[in-house]
Design a protein that fits this description.
40% of the residues lie in helices and 22% in strands. The strands form three sheets. A six-stranded parallel β-sheet has the order 3-2-1-4-5-6, covered by helices on one side. Strands 7-8-9-10-12-11 form a six-stranded mixed β-sheet. Strands 13-14 form a two-stranded antiparallel sheet. Helix 6 runs antiparallel to helix 7, helix 7 packs antiparallel against helix 8 and helix 7 packs across helix 9. The longest helix has 16 residues.
Length: 323
Amino acid sequence: MNKLIEKFKALKKELLKSQKILLVAHLNPDVDSLGSVFAFDHYLRNELKKKTTLLSVDEISPLASKLFSKKQIENTYNLPDYDTIMILDREDTFYKLKMDEEMREKNLKIKVINIDHHPKPPIKGALNLVNIEAAATCEIIYEFFKQINYKIPPKAAQYLLNGIFTDTGGFRHNNTTAKNLEIVSDLMKKGASIRKINRLVFENKSLSALRLWSIALSRAELYKKTGMVISFLTREDLKKCNASKSDASGIAEVLNTISGSKFSLVLYESRPNIIKASLRSDEHKGVDVSEIAKRFKGGGHKLASGFEIKGTLKEVKGEWTIE
């Protein structure tokens, strides 16, 4: 923690020097990434009076659009316009958007700041604030605000609570700790509402989402030898149910509760010729799903990981396969 405190001090110095800051959410952003972006934006604009741009190159989910203002988010950017880039919640976004290549080709002198809780390699040459013990990136940002004695206003408190709540599965996952519960308690004292995010995440499932879940559950298979529970969804399934990609969120957690399972794997076609995989397990089951994800150049945490592979899901003679 001492090393992180030193990096918090360095971060404050860099932000004071910055004038135009690009806040970057990861691809297909989740609530933790967006909560991080919006909370930092609130601090930078209102406290430090900086010029900011919030970036998400992908459309945000219907759930996220109920928590964050889509009007504040841009989906395009011009890198030379900024002196600082903040990558929030996934360091690989910097490389997937080829920002590193553009900076080299144009010889751009831009400060890169990476704040993350995933066990990934740091961004070379960046100020990397990574804490893999944190349940969410929003938790790290809370610690930064606390370290610099920033009085978190109710709106920013809600953004941070949203990220911590969703990344702990509503405090049901094994990454729930006394520390993040204390943080949430403090955020609630500052004006954040746990009831609001709980209602949206767990009590607001659309009929389209439930139909999609029904398809996934009907296809679920348990392989007793390995303890793997697997299911899948195609783009046609989403179209048939009038569902979005975000509606598939949470299925892996449900499959992981099946008796006899050691871990769950859900495959779904996130975009043309790309299959996204979500892996989940529990501490007592003794399976580190991040090791499985690494075999496919993915990553994540011991109990919650994922990866992407190229291909499509096809049914051939009653059997499903990846082509």
